[in-house]
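Re: the 97-residue chain
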Amino acid sequence: MQFRAPDGLVERTDVLATVLETDRTDVIISALREYLQEAAHDDALKQQIAEAYYDDEITLGELKDLVGHEEAANFRALKTQLGEEFLDDAAGELADS
């Protein structure tokens, strides 16, 4: 994976890597892990993740990776319920017309 980052950020990463006696890659991986761990507990971000799952933009496996198995199971159950309710409502509307 390659990406571009502002020079100042790269320099700070390199300095931290020197202090920790490691390399830039380890610092970046550690930062990404920490960010993703914190993101899994952010309610607004969880809502965005759930919406992406409901809209079939991400898979159940990807959902589990982002929010954990228990939360993913809850979102899956809700998606199933919402799908069934939508179908029931649509069938009811068609029967009424």
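Residues 69-96 form the longest helix (28 residues).
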